Amino acid sequence: MMLPLRTWVVPSSVLLFLMCCENKLCRPVAAHGNVFLPVAPDDINILLGSEAAVFGGPFEHSSGDRIHMLWMENWTSLDDSFQWNVSIAERGYYVIQILVCSHFKMSSGYNGGSSPVALKLEFYRWPSMGCDNSDETCLSGKVLNEVVAKVEHQVVYSDAPVMMQFAREIVADSVALPAGPLTVKLSVKELPEEGELNLSFHSLEMMTREVLDSLKSEKEELLGDTSWLRNDARYGLFFHWNSFTLPLKGDKLAYEDAVNRFDVEHFVDIVHQSGANVIIFTTNWAGYHFPAAIRSIDRILQGRTTKRDLIAEISEGLKQVGVRFILYYHYGKDDDEWFRAMNFTRGARNEYFWDCWCEIIAEIGNRYGTAFDGWWIDDGMTGYYPHRAPWRRMWRALKAGNPKRVVGYNPWALPKPTDLQELYAGEMSVLDISFLPGLAPGSTGVFETGPQVGLYATFSSLLQNGDWTFMRGGSIDQRTGQMTGEQGEDTDFAGLQISLPEIIWGVGEARRRSALAVFNLLISQEGAVCHEAQKLLRGLSLGLEAIESGSVVAVGPSSAHQVEHFGVPLAVELATTGPWPDGPLFWRRSNALIGWNADPKAFASWEVKFVGFQGRVVEFNFSVVMSCDAECEGLSISVGSVLLNTPSLQNLQHFDQSIEVHATLDLPRTGGMDDFIEVSVGKIAFMCQEGGEERRRIVIMLKHELGETSMSKDWSLRGAVLYAR
To answer: Could you tell me the pTM of the whole model?
Structure first.
């Protein structure tokens, strides 16, 4: 059966076609006019999988838009391979790197990993540059018979979080290649011994050792200062306020009108009350606008800037409250009018586009100087990298006005696009931080190994459900660049994605590694934010303060420290104290802090300082975030407390008789060990005796009606919360 002709979108300078045969082994047709991908000795040369002649079943992972170029997946057979025609400018020794992943969790067909996979990379010389499409010798591929270099490489499966699973690996540290035209072929040498073959492949990189050394020197010359991130940053907030942001009520304002009405004082107060001391603020997003008068933007397209300099005002306001300021920049890929004005062409390196990009960035950098501390550049691997971004020029432009300014490109789920940056500007949940390769507790915040090696770690994640920008439940149609699915006026902010115990634990894990957790807080066009999100962030701030001070502060109704009308959920840190026969159990898949084992008297406890007036009752609602499987029937949880002058709980023979039990609850069954829910256990109430505060040890105890032998390990506690009444 004949298969239809398949074609690929490739740079206009490279004309590759594919002929498919009855045996489904496809062979390339010789390039027209002997045009090959150039391999320059002074650059990192990229061979994209999406631009190769593809043999067999691999296909590109769909991005859903018109700009992004992603990885090839469904590489599942020995018959599958990739080929490129290249022209080596100079004979020499080249470093070859591959961006690849075995059983990528984001790809179709993921089924859990395999043993190592052996790849082979072959370089063939073209003996006849005169063959054309009518030459059967060319069509049969028989001209590819002189191998000038051959290397092999093993791809090992990684069970890292999906955003860190793809790897950049050295295939050859020094392979000798002759000058002239070659064909590069990448294929699988042999199937894995265990599991199935399922590779995802992004690209090959070819460069000389001199290029890598020169990039190190250029980076050192303009290296930014990350010490403030490592030493001073607490946690950060991300604000996507841009031309797509909708109001909570009424009609959407024109972008410049919205900029003119933006209340900077109110915005700074929101930031200050949150406890965050690093802010990332979007200057543009899907649509291209900038909230200040930038001449280089006006030269390219009128109507995309504003008279009011909102960036300068926000910077000054944040400086007054000690908050660092990072600008987010996007090239506006969903804005057709802007991209046409920039003369952008998908799949090609357009010098005019990059000239304009560098001019805009340099003008912004020179305009504000030290008024902002860093750049967060979106689409680093999905947009910039496949279009052969001129990283050296961009590095110099990004440092204009302040060489100490830090730079980070968002790689999404792929390795870093370039070494010319200081930050991993990544998208990742804080609940995954403890499982990351190369970022151990006690480190300096810089990845020591893995796909982001050498970069300072920042993690940006959604605080609320939905998209990064408030669009009343709508989203951006990646094919048209227009908003779709808007739910209408008076649509409130989406619900929270993370609980208070989880966010405290996640930020704590980041801080243990000197890294920075950043949370996207939805903001409406009129500058409103979600009240529940504010409460969560305030609870996070109080919880971190309590942990840092060695105790957890619960604020009573009459306390001078009370946060007025918030009704703040007050955090507590679970301490790993108690008679653990086998030590505390850590559930990898669920990120749980503590799992109970077979001891029915196991307990966890921590210290809390309750604050209130003498002689008045102090009340709190107590909740736990837990999961429980089917074997939890008959299991109950109790919460109690003892004064701190009570002997150590570990030495108590009858601790259940010494503890004042406040509430008991039969635990509900959840949907499994990964299904965590917050359950209210009950109320803690007591009378403050001496002075205005009382220090107690709060105790969580488990009891099972069937006795010790029936206890199940399949119950996990992720955290606990005290809510001020």
So the answer is: 0.77
